Amino acid sequence: MADTNSQTPPVRPPFDDTDADIIIRSADGVDFRLYKVVLAKASSVFRDMFTLPDGSQRVGEPQVVDVTEDADTLEGLLRFCYPVSRPAFQSLDELGPVLSAAKKYEMHSVLEDSVRSFEALLPTASLLRAYTLACLLELPDIVRRSAKLLLARDPNCFEAVPMPPEFRTLPCEVMYVFAVYRGKFRKAALSVVDDSWEWLLSGDHRYKMLYSNKGNPHMHSTWIWLSCTDCGEDDTTRGLWAGRKSARTFLRPRKWYARYIRGIMDILVECPSPEIPGEAALRERALSEAASCGTCAPLAPLQLPEFARLLLIRLQAALGEITLELPFKE
Which stretches make up the BTB domain (predicted)? Predict the structure, then answer.
């Protein structure tokens, strides 16, 4: 707490009530003329502070409290508490200090509203910045959401320039848990794609291989990239046995499909996410190659998009079971 200065500090409207009984003075010397009852309702910290005697307060004048937040941060904070227009944050630079102040002063309703503002900024914010800021402020829902988006949309996040300012105070544990999380995602995603070889023949889909009573595979029932014998097979890929006992047939995928799958796996190594950025381009290239085969051309445009759709579902199911180990107690 402090005495008023001999030179009257500027006052920030709309927090300029002449009958105010408390003045909050920002770190950059701007006064906010407020009411104790409003602050006490919004913040348990201020409520407890107002119970303490203030020997420096002059009779008939409002109490003055110096704080470490600048005027812009205080205005954003107070707009959540007072019956005035709510703040419209355009960036994490604006929102971050307000969130930090809301936690510091234990303004729980303000924190809830500002977290919603944080969520609204995620689609356009730097995701690495969002993740690190959410970790420092211990916002579990934002941490989990931003980490998942970071995997999907910014595989080269650690090459970010300039460095997020939070890195200067960021515990090493924050990035360690993200690295572990990313590793689990990568392993699970690659496993789903690798398991696709067996799933192609026996999975729960319309192109599941059918067999005769003697165990002979009905080649027309399965995917065209397994049943076609008119274009080149990929002999670098492990094959599949279809059929039973002596009726078994050894299958290898067509080259155009094998190149598509290898491309998918390359993407998932760098960007382990069910969104598979760049999958559509890989599929178009594969279909362009398949079009040169008279057998593959009619069916590939129907079957490959269906395979891609089902692959995304399987990836989502597998990756949805992976949780981020928070670097703080929830």
Answer: 20-82
d(CA 303, CA 307): 6
pLDDT tens, 263-318? Answer: 999 999 988 888 888 999 999 999 999 999 999 999 999 999 999 999 999 999 99
Phi/psi region, residue 167 (left: phi>0; alpha: psi -120 to 50; beta: rest), is: alpha
- Exposure of 178 by Cβ count < 10 A (0-12 exposed, 13-18 middle, 19+ buried)? buried
CA-to-CA dists, residue 209 to 62, 223, 231, 246, 313, angstroms:
83, 8, 20, 17, 20
- Residue ranges covered by each domain of the chain: 1-121, 125-170, 176-330
Domain 1-121 adopts which CATH fold?
Answer: Potassium Channel Kv1.1; Chain A (3.30.710)
CB atoms within 10 A of CB 218: 13
240 three-class SS: strand
